[in-house]
Design the sequence.
């Protein structure tokens, strides 16, 4: 009886310790400075082009209101998107994303992120502000924790251009399909770590 | 009209073939263009550009400009293209060294007959002058390099009948000329043919049958045959691999080819490759069949949108009587000054095993075209 009680106590303690090791890093706020954003745009005639930028920044951490949610936000400067063809960059930024309109247009923001799991592969949801419109997006993410306290995130989600009230992108008879794919890869460091740099 | 001898013409056109490189750009796979149909009127690539292709053409030029979207697609699309070339071949055998120049003028036109049918043609004058030690010669040929009727029932499907180059994995004239020079030096570059194209963002297939072009050097070089070229995109519309097969028959020679090709692009750089094994059997001879392995590889880097450098490697290994190993290295730079002017600079070192002399060719070509 005593042995059983002790075993239970050890078991409960072990589980508590194990859970705490997983949750501890998730309680910290994480700083993001740079990453790889790739927007894959399929063309109506076949083929596709990619718009890329590294101008990702932001902070994320546990949301105070609800367990499992991430507070903070990730921001992408849209005037840095590049497709490999200068004239196309100009059309993308000025004609379609209208970055010159300022707030809500020059930066895309994702916030209210909800993760199914804080490590490994899982689904996520979030609110994307793009072209002055806020819409829910959902996709998949893979989170890998590293020994130095940083985490690496790969995430991917589709979005429909029309839902964000972006004019239908066409050029001389060739268009971009309505559904495009956004791929995000970045490293995030605990705020305490980044503040020492 | 032939002013002088044909061998010189063959040599000159081979030397100056770089000048035609500007007409097809499979290098665009680096930006996700995994087939030719987005930018070219014909799914085989090369030749006239679609309105979108014209837009990309100017967008990737040093001097770019905005093109307005036409209210409606013009029924007739055309351009006039001039290619001016000059080259200097230095050989280990001084008597083979040669200086040459070439002017080619082409008119290219496509006329829509209905919403699904069209005719297209490409014809022009090809003149060349060369100087060797103590001799000088020139040629002037009228060439019809394309005369096609096309039926396109829907997007991704096209049927064509007429005179044209045969479909290849890369769609580049350079490797096609090199391959033909090795396997079929007396044949035509523009056989009469019937072919079909089926393409999606993922697949491309082009079966074809062909007959003589009637500009072969002799009746015995006229041939009939058929083949198929097919490829699949295996990575993000930036990696296409495929295979080709071809069989042909003339009164004297049977040929069978099988090949593989790849078009790979990674943003600013990429690799194009096509390799073929051809077996030739001379029906009137008891000699063993001869096999040719012919390869073309191009590594390219787009330092700027308008400035693409390449290293081209041709390689041919021939077995049987008169077997040889030949390879060529050609660093090339292509500068697209505007949508009307392209300049290509190159050198080409040719190495041949055995007693044949190695050589180096310096070439420059300027391509000018009108833009409708």
Sequence:
């Amino acid at each position: 009886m005593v042995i059983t009680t002790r075993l239970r106590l050890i078991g409960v303690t072990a589980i508590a310790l194990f859970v705490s090791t997983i949750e501890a890093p998730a309680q910290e706020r994480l700083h993001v400075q740079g990453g790889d954003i790739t927007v894959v745009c399929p063309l109506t005639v076949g083929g596709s082009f990619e718009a890329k930028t590294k101008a990702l920044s932001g902070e994320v951490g546990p949301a105070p209101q609800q367990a499992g949610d991430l507070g903070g936000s990730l921001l992408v400067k849209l005037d840095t998107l590049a497709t490999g063809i200068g004239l196309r960059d100009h059309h993308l930024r000025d004609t379609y994303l209208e970055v010159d309109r300022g707030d809500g247009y020059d930066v895309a923001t994702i916030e209210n992120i909800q993760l199914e799991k804080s490590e490994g592969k899982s689904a996520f949801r979030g609110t994307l502000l793009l072209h002055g419109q806020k819409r829910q997006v959902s996709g998949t993410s893979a989170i890998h924790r590293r020994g130095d306290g940083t985490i690496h995130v790969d995430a991917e989600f589709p979005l429909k251009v029309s839902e964000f009230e972006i004019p239908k992108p066409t050029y001389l008879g060739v268009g971009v399909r309505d559904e495009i794919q956004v791929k995000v890869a970045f490293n995030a460091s605990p705020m305490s770590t980044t503040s020492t740099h | 009209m032939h002013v002088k001898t044909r061998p010189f013409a063959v040599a000159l056109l081979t030397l100056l073939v770089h000048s035609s490189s500007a007409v097809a750009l499979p290098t665009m796979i680096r930006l996700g263009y995994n087939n030719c149909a987005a930018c070219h009127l014909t799914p085989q690539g090369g030749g006239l550009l679609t309105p979108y292709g014209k837009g990309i053409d100017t967008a990737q030029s040093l001097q770019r400009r905005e093109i307005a979207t036409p209210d409606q697609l013009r029924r007739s699309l055309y351009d006039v293209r001039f290619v001016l070339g000059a080259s200097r071949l230095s050989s280990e055998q001084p008597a083979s060294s040669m200086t040459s120049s070439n002017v080619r003028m082409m008119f290219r036109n496509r006329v829509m007959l209905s919403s699904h049918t069209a005719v297209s043609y490409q014809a022009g004058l090809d003149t060349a002058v060369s100087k060797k030690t103590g001799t000088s010669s020139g040629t002037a040929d009228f060439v019809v390099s394309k005369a096609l009727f096309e039926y396109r029932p829907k997007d991704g499907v096209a049927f064509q009948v007429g005179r044209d180059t045969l479909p290849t994995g890369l769609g580049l004239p350079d490797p096609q000329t090199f391959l033909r020079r090795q396997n079929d030096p007396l044949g035509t570059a523009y056989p009469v043919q019937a072919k079909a194209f089926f393409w999606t963002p993922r697949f491309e297939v082009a079966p074809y049958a062909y007959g003589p072009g009637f500009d072969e050097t002799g009746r015995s070089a006229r041939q009939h045959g058929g083949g198929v070229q097919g490829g699949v995109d295996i990575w993000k519309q930036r990696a296409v691999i495929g295979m080709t097969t071809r069989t042909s028959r003339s009164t004297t020679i049977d040929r069978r080819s099988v090949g593989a090709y790849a078009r790979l692009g990674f943003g600013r750089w990429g690799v194009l490759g096509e390799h073929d094994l051809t077996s030739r059997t001379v029906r009137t001879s008891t000699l063993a069949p001869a096999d040719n392995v012919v390869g073309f590889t191009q590594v390219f880097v787009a330092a700027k949108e308008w400035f693409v450098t390449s290293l081209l490697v041709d390689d041919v290994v021939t077995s049987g009587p008169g077997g040889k190993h030949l390879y060529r290295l050609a660093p090339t730079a292509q500068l697209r000054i505007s949508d009307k002017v392209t300049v290509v600079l190159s050198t080409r070192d040719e190495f041949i095993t055995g007693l044949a002399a190695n050589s180096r060719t310096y070439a420059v070509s300027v391509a000018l075209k009108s833009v409708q």
